[in-house]
């Protein structure tokens, strides 16, 4: 079943006017370097807090480290929504390139900061830019890419972020100085500048802007009645997968260790490798799955398999065995599929007038709850009698996501039907 088209006439005109290869490269690089920048502070953090001599008490060091990481995520969430609003106002191309440039510039400035307060500010602004890139890039691709291959290429874009996370480890391996390591931000700045001449604005957005210029009331409120239902739906679907994914990923090594009496670095490491490989494979294959069975069925499969594999992992394994690797790989595979499918599905829920801001909202509202979810897994360990039970309780969010996809069959913003 085919992906629902936005508008066949508009899409044909858009594809003719936009050079797709440079656009794909800019979006992929912007997303990949966003992944690298997101993780770079984590790999350099022990050295950073030591070099800046921010505190002598280990507890104070942990607190400052927590501030740096949490404010990056907070900036990411705010940026995802803010750049969506900016994109709907000034255009997809300008917002995308400015967001890439923002996180690039503030990444370079991070390496130049002489104190931890400056680093926190720079990390917040880096997160602000990264959140914008993740939201605006998929919106721009949605509006300009041919329907036949749209899901495939957006699925490939979804694996750029984890590729960037892997790259952060390479940067740390080859560049020991954290100040020099953060100069990697120069590359996304160059990418943003190159995009000025190599990519064009979405014709769909330009057409809307022209129509609004001649209208007496060109306002399309994000939280209006026609947008409210898809906004709530998109937020729940994306948020439940996000919360479940991060809760399980964050605590998976600890759960693995709880099954083994002695220290198990090999088992923990292999488990995370299977998580990473499964996620990358799932994201890469997600577009082909969408083209084969459709958007709704792909989403239903993602939530159903994640729920089933969570049950098998946490309720049928009382001791460690090799089967756990296979179960983790399948779980991660459908995590990856979900990210690719949702990147296609969410923008299509909304009309052009609010597509970027609505997508940014859906992508990031759940992120505000994710940190709390990850924290509460640890809090609930004693309440529910171990990591297995605590993680299984959190995996029930996949059932909520599945129920929303099943029962909300037709959403028709802007004249679109997403029933398939």
Shape: globular
User: Unreliable stretches, pLDDT < 50, 5 or more residues?
Assistant: 1-18, 412-420
Radius of gyration: 21 Å
Q: Could you give the order of the helices and strands? A: HHHHHHHHHHHHHHHHHH
Key terms:
mainly alpha; disordered C terminus; 420 residues; disordered N terminus
Write the layout of secondary structure elements.
Elements: H1 8-17, H2 20-52, H3 58-90, H4 92-112, H5 116-144, H6 147-158, H7 160-174, H8 178-181, H9 186-198, H10 203-213, H11 225-258, H12 265-293, H13 295-316, H14 323-348, H15 355-365, H16 367-384, H17 387-395, H18 397-407
How would you describe what is shown here?
The chain has helices at residues 8-17, 20-52, 58-90, 92-112, 116-144, 147-158, 160-174, 178-181, 186-198, 203-213, 225-258, 265-293, 295-316, 323-348, 355-365, 367-384, 387-395, 397-407. It is built from 18 helices and no strands.
Summarize it.
With 420 residues, the chain is mainly α.
């Amino acid at each position: 079943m085919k992906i629902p088209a936005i508008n066949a006439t508009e899409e044909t005109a858009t594809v003719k006017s936009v050079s797709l290869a440079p656009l794909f490269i800019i979006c992929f690089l912007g997303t990949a370097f966003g992944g690298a920048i997101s993780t770079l502070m984590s790999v350099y953090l022990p050295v950073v807090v030591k070099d800046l001599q921010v505190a002598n008490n280990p507890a104070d060091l942990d607190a400052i480290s927590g501030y740096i990481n949490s404010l990056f995520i907070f900036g990411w969430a705010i940026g995802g929504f803010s750049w969506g609003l900016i994109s709907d106002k000034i255009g997809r191309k300008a917002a995308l390139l400015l967001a890439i440039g923002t996180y690039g510039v503030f990444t370079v400035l991070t390496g130049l900061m002489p104190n931890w307060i400056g680093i926190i500010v720079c990390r917040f602004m880096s997160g602000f830019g990264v959140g914008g890139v993740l939201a605006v890039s998929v919106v721009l691709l949605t509006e300009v890419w041919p329907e036949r291959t749209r899901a495939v290429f957006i699925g490939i874009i979804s694996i750029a972020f984890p590729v960037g996370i892997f790259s952060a480890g390479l940067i740390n391996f080859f560049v020991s100085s954290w100040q020099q390591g953060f100069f990697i931000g120069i590359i996304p700045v160059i990418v943003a500048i190159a995009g000025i001449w190599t990519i064009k604005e979405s014709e769909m957005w330009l057409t809307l802007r022209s129509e609004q210029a001649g209208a007496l009331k060109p306002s399309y409120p994000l939280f209006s009645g026609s947008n409210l239902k898809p906004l709530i739906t998109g937020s729940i679907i994306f948020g439940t997968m996000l919360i479940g994914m991060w809760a399980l990923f964050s605590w998976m090594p600890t759960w693995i260790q709880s099954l083994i009496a002695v220290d198990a670095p090999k088992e923990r490491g292999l488990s995370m490798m299977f998580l990473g490989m499964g996620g990358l494979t799932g994201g890469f294959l997600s577009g082909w799955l969408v083209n084969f069975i459709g958007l709704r069925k792909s989403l239903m499969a993602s939530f159903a398999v994640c729920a089933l594999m969570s049950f098998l992992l946490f309720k049928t394994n009382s001791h460690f065995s090799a089967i756990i690797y296979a179960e983790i790989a399948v779980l991660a595979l459908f995590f990856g599929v979900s990210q690719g499918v949702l990147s296609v599905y969410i923008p299509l829920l909304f009309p052009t007038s609010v597509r970027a801001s609505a997508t940014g909202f859906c992508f990031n509202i759940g992120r505000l709850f994710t940190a709390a979810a990850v924290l509460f897994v640890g809090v609930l360990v004693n309440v529910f009698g171990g990591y297995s039970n605590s993680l299984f309780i959190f995996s029930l969010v996949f059932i909520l996501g599945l129920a929303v996809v099943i029962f909300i069959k037709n959403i028709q913003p802007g004249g679109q039907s997403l029933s398939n």
